[in-house]
Amino acid sequence: MITVLQVIGTSCVLLGTYFTAHKKRAAWVVYQLxxxxxxxxxxxxxxxIAIMAQLIYMTMNVYGWIAWGKxxxxx
Length: 75
Fold this sequence. Notes:
- The structure is a single chain.
- The protein is an all-alpha fold.
- The chain has helices spanning about 5-20, 25-45, 50-70.
- The chain has one domain (about 5-70).
- The protein has three helices and no strands.
- The protein starts with a helix and ends in a 6-residue tail after the last helix.
């Protein structure tokens, strides 16, 4: 069964990808929101290794936000 958290997480990833393709810095914020939705879902399902992976992705998103803010990374 598809949950609200799955819809939110997937929607954020798709919107973030769209923003990235159009070189919008807001993509990183949208990715973070999606990451939080996935973490909430993984907590409910007790998928702790998936939470660790998501935290790594979210850390990389912070780097992307900073790099794009400095004019690096194609933005």
